[in-house]
Design goal:
Rossmann fold; six-stranded mixed sheet; four-stranded parallel sheet; 12 helices; 42% helix; GTPase_HflX
């Protein structure tokens, strides 16, 4: 009788590579690589090493310089000799087909860039037909200009070109290129089909939105993993999937809420991220329409994140690209229970940094700038949630009276 040995599946190991440039200093590169490591962890990979290089701009053929690429190659060889195989190398920026091909030829391991890693996570997270279709479209759009490297194993014929003496392009199309053209045509057809499906989904979503009645629409927006779904669950008493991973939510979830006498719709939307691939923004049009059609945007911010101000800028830039920058909005700083700062000694005369700012000082600064459109809460610890409900009620009621002046009290407030 055979004995079956159950072996533990090991997570793939990854090396991260980033650049320090004129536009991106060392501290910024570290923050980006921290986020890239979180993305890799979400995708199921374990980061074992980071490489950075200080350059004016990315190398057009290999992203990093020749010397740095050789250093990465030697590290991979040394790890393999020590029986610690490196599964992949992940680059912090989007790579061209030429860069991927050249790096793969040199390193002999799987090469990913930030965009392909995000697409992989989206593919893993997609649950509904809508999300799966949107992700598949984004993947094909990403794949199309990079098809050439998929067929490098096919030899291309180098026959003569007739009267050209062997140097012209006519007559040189070998089986690899024929296959490439065939695959390009198949992918273009698939993209067309997926676009048609998304157009149908978009029509269905539009019809659904029209049938929601005379209610104000509120959308929770923000960077990925800031706690939007947790706030959604808390306010609407629903069970939206939430966990401490990037892009836990891909599909927009809409719930009807009632505060006192006022009903409105609350939507939880997909999170944004730095360097979000354009193909994803285009593909997720029907999902992001919830943001476009919202009457009020509630911008949720993770105040415990060391770079939350940069995340605010990323979200505001993305909202501007969606044409939503002029919508009524408010900021909700979440995770105040996890906020930390470094207290300066009385005799420390060095300039104060953002690590030395207390939560009270941050609160006073932001409240002074934004008046009543700024709140500090902890959704996990349920801190200041009543205040959030009060402010939401006030803002939604103002918008409701403006939009539906003859229908401003839909439910009897029995407490009055």
């Amino acid at each position: 009788m055979k004995e079956f040995v159950i072996s533990e599946v090991k997570a793939e190991t990854a090396i991260l590579v980033g650049l320090i440039t004129q536009d991106q200093d060392e501290a910024k590169t570290k923050e980006y690589l921290d986020e890239l490591e979180f993305l890799a962890d979400t995708a199921g990979a374990v980061t074992v090493k980071r490489f950075t290089q200080k350059v004016n701009s990315a190398n057009q053929t290999t992203y990093v310089g020749k010397g740095k690429l050789e250093e990465i190659k030697q590290y991979i060889i040394d790890e393999e000799d020590a029986d610690r195989e490196i599964g992949m190398v992940i680059f912090d920026d989007e790579l061209s087909a030429k860069q991927i091909r050249n790096i793969e030829n040199e390193l002999k391991v799987k090469i990913l860039d930030r965009t392909s890693l995000i697409l992989d996570i989206f593919a893993m997270r997609a649950q509904t037909a809508n999300a799966k279709t949107q992700v598949e479209l984004a993947q094909y759009r990403y794949m199309l200009p990079r098809l050439q490297r998929l067929w490098t194993h096919l030899e291309r014929q180098r026959g003569g070109s007739g009267s050209g003496g062997g140097k012209g392009s006519v007559g040189l199309r070998g089986p690899g290129e024929t296959q490439l053209e065939m695959d390009r045509r198949i992918i273009l057809q698939r993209i067309t089909l997926l676009k048609q499906r998304l157009t149908e989904i978009d029509k269905q979503k539009t019809t659904q939105r029209k049938n929601r009645g005379r209610m104000i629409r509120v959308a929770l927006v923000g960077y990925t993993n800031v706690g939007k779904s947790t706030i959604m669950n808390l306010l609407s008493k629903s069970e939206v999937f939430a966990e401490n991973k990037l892009f836990a939510t891909l599909d927009t979830t809409v719930r009807k809420m009632v505060i006192d006498n006022l009903p409105f719709l609350l939507a939880d939307t997909v999170g944004f991220i730095r360097k979000l691939p354009t193909d994803l923004v285009d593909s997720f049009k029907s999902t992001l329409d919830e943001v476009r059609e919202a009457d009020l945007l509630v911008h949720v911010v993770d105040i415990s994140h060391p770079d939350f101000e940069e995340q605010i800028k990323v979200v505001e830039k993305t909202l501007s690209e969606l044409g939503c920058s002029d919508k009524p909005s408010m900021i909700v700083f979440n995770k105040i229970d996890a906020y930390t700062w470094v207290d300066k000694e009385p005799d420390d005369l060095t300039p104060m940094t953002k690590e030395n700012v207390t939560l009270d000082e941050l609160r006073r600064t932001w409240m002074a700038n934004m008046n009543d459109s700024c709140l500090f809460i902890s959704a996990r610890e349920k801190m200041n949630i009543d205040e959030l409900r009060e402010v939401l009620y006030k803002r939604v009621r103002e918008l409701h009276v403006q939009k539906y002046p003859y229908n401003d009290f839909l439910y009897q407030d029995y407490e009055e």
